[in-house]
Amino acid sequence: MGAPRAATILHADLDAFYASVEQLLDPSLRGRPIAVGGGVVLAASYEARATGVRSGMPGWQARRLCPDLRFVGGHFGEYQRLGDAVVDLFEEFTPLVERVSIDEAFLDVHGAAHLFGAPAQIAAAIRRRVRDELGLPVSVGVARTKHLAKVASQVAKPDGLVVVDPEHERAFLDPLPVGLIWGVGPVTRARLAEAGIETIGQLARARNELLEPLLGQAASSKLGMLAENVDPRHVVTARRASSVGAQSALARQPASAPLIRSTLGYLVDRAAGRLRAGRRAARTVTVRVRFAGLRSVTRSSTFPVAVSATLTLAEAATALALEALAAHPEERDVTLVGVSLSNLVGEPGLQLELPGIGLDDRSRPGSPWGSTRWGVDRSVDAIRDRFGRHAIGYASSSLGEVDRVPEAFRTLAERRDDGVRSTP
DNA sequence: TCTGGGGTCCTAGGACCC
DNA sequence: TCTGGGGTCCTAGGACCC
Question: What are the tens digits of pLDDT across the range A339-357?
Answer without folding.
Answer: 999 999 987 555 555 544 4
